[in-house]
Amino acid sequence: MANTKTRTQDNEVTAGKEGKYLTFTLGKEEYGLEILKVREIIGYMDITSVPQTPHYIKGVINLRGRIIPVVDLRAKFGMETVGLTEETCIIVVEISQKGNKFDTGILVDRVQEVLDIGSEEIEETPQLGHSVNTDFILGMGKIEDSVKILLDIDKVLSADDIAGFTSVAADSSVGQDAAVTDESQ
User: Fold this and answer.
1) How many Å apart are CA 13 and CA 178, to the nearest integer?
2) Does the CA dihedral 152-153-155-156 come out positive or negative?
3) CATH number for the segment(s) 2-184
4) Which helix (H) or strand (E) holds 35?
5) Cα–Cα distance between 65 and 140 in angstroms, integer?
6) Alpha-carbon span 65 to 136, nearest angstrom
7) Ranges of H-type helices in the chain
């Protein structure tokens, strides 16, 4: 009877997390993002560095006239950085925080596939101690013999990161709009 109650509670906790996830890798680890947060996937392109940004912010890109900040997810997660490969790409995601929405790019090693993950395949994030922040993890996807760490992209980046991004994008857009206006005259 206790097992049934625990299973029921687990299903209630993970019920809202089922759905389609875009999966990608960072090193040997596999991650997933809710597909509804993904705007597009682009190959690696030149990134313009922005002074005085945290080490994990690679800079900004000009994507069809829009300035989009790019975060190196390896650096954000404290992983060893590696060189670029043919599979390195940028996933453009929509971030929502405090009622605001904006696009940002995340640099990943390789995009894998879109998976439909049911609530029965998702487990809660394990307790890793009080000093380990796991708020940005939606859950753990159990797919065959592998585990995919399902990310809440809105929580991967802190409110301070978001404030910095919006000011960088706004400053860059203002300059870009002025440049476009000057060129058209």
Assistant:
1) 49
2) positive
3) 2.40.50.180
4) none
5) 37
6) 30
7) 2-14, 73-76, 153-156, 159-184
Confirm if 165 and 102 have CB atoms less than 8 A apart: yes
Instruction: Determine contact, residues 15/110, Cβ cutoff 8 Å.
Output: no
- Give pLDDT tens digits for 99-124: 889 899 999 999 999 999 999 999 98
3-state SS class at 105: strand
Phi, psi of 98 (to 5 degrees): 50, 40
pTM: 0.79
181: CB partners within 8 A, 6+ apart: none
For residues 31 and 21, give the distance between their C-alpha atoms in angstroms, rounded to a whole number.
9
User: First CA to last CA across the chain, in angstroms?
Assistant: 76
* Pairwise CA distance, residues 88 & 42, whole Å: 9
Where along the chain do its domains lie?
2-184
Do 55 and 103 contact (CB within 8 A), yes or no? no
Q: How far apart are CA 140 and CA 147, in angstroms?
A: 6
C-alpha closest to that of 104 among 61, 64, 74, 136: 61
The pLDDT tens digits for 87-99 are 999 999 999 888 8
State whether residue 10 is helix, strand or coil. helix
